[in-house]
Automatic annotation (TrEMBL):
The organism's taxonomic lineage, starting at the top: Bacteria, Pseudomonadati, Pseudomonadota, Alphaproteobacteria, Rhodobacterales
Classification via Gene3D superfamilies: 3.30.70.270
Pfam families in the cross-refs: GGDEF
Protein name, per record: GGDEF domain-containing protein
Residue ranges of domain GGDEF in the record: 188-322
Domain of life according to the entry: Bacteria
């Protein structure tokens, strides 16, 4: 039988995470992948006990030599404390022992910590398959994450669109209902200002709907400029707007705001070579008029005050007065003349 010669380099392809140590526990050889974890110059010549903590199947290593032929659990004593698994075996006739190591379930962290690649593992190592699976899973998770982000963005955009008037960018009636419901549920005091444009129909009739759209966009800009960040402006009809003033109840202040809005609306609005001329009539009410404020009732009462502004000659604001307006609810609702006055 031919004598077998031992060449440490021949084991590299099969055990790139191995090392060899002598019977005194001194490390004599470090394979390439293990050399990426720790500098070989610091390992070769060092005692294994100074490099690793070693446990034998959970029973502890003690101070004696590393047990051979059994599963070992190791950790580096310095630097990144990467958990390792291994097994040691004697290399007959050499005075050396072989300690082959692996990462076990810590392989993913180890690959990231030490920037390892598939080339650092034996081709037959199942760790390669695990890495491919982890990479595939990571790719799927990242794609899923991006898909969820896109879906969430689309959902937010759809919800925003559902609550927005596309022409003016203001909130719509649905958004107004939602805001009022929330404020009433939270007992937040607020005022409602119902604005109806005067002479808007004549702009549409004489200059066309494109001119009307220009006017509505200009009106929206004015209303946003005349309200605060925590107020809300909604377009609730063709030329109707409702403004909700959060915690703003002072009557004189509300009327001054309404008058300022009307004054700005009366400034001519350029459209091509023409000037569009409109104004606005306003009705105002606040939650202080009601024992238990109700959205539909408040909007109706602001509408009654708006009708009064129309009847008084337009281009003015009226504060709702329960003593004046409540006695005329049925008249205001059913009288077709009032509806003809608006616009």
């Amino acid at each position: 039988m031919r004598e077998m010669r031992f060449d440490p380099a021949s084991l590299v392809a099969f055990m790139p995470m191995s090392l060899m140590y002598d019977d005194a526990g001194v490390i004599r050889y470090v394979a390439p992948t293990l050399a990426k974890l720790r500098d070989p110059a610091c390992l070769i010549g060092a005692q294994i006990a100074d490099v690793f903590s070693v446990r034998d199947n959970g029973r502890g290593s003690g101070a004696g030599p590393i047990p051979l032929g059994t599963k070992l659990y190791l950790n580096f004593l310095t630097g990144i404390s990467t958990p390792l698994k291994g097994m040691a075996a004697e290399i007959p006739g050499t005075g050396l022992n072989l300690l082959n190591l692996s990462f076990g379930i810590s392989i993913v962290d180890a690959v990231a910590d030490y920037r390892l690649t598939s080339g650092d593992f034996a081709h037959t190592d199942l760790a390669i398959e695990m890495l491919y699976l982890v990479e595939a899973k990571s790719a799927v998770l990242e794609e899923t994450k991006q898909l969820n982000a896109r879906l969430q963005g689309a959902k937010v955009a759809a919800e925003e669109q559902a609550y927005t008037d596309t022409l003016t960018g203001l909130k719509n009636r649905r958004a107004m209902d939602h805001v009022m419901e929330r404020m009433l549920r939270s007992s937040v005091p607020f005022a409602i200002m119902h604005l109806d444009l005067d002479y808007f129909k004549s702009v549409n009739d004489t200059l066309g709907h494109a001119a009307g759209d220009t006017v509505l966009q200009r009106v929206a800009k004015i209303l946003l400029e005349e309200t605060r960040g925590d107020d809300m402006v909604a377009r609730v009809g063709g030329d109707e707007f409702i403004l909700i003033f959060n915690k703003f109840m002072e009557h004189d202040g509300l009327m001054r705001t309404a008058e300022r809005i009307i004054t700005r609306l009366e400034e001519p609005i350029p459209y091509q070579d023409e000037l569009c001329r409109i104004s606005g009539s306003v009705g105002v009410t606040t939650t202080e008029f009601y024992e238990t404020p109700n959205a539909d009732v408040m909007i109706h009462d602001a509408d009654l005050a708006l009708y009064s502004s129309k009847y008084e000659g337009r281009a003015q604001a009226t504060m709702f007065d329960p003593k004046v307006h409540k006695g005329h609810v049925s008249d205001h609702v059913n009288d077709p003349v009032e509806h003809r006055v608006r616009g």
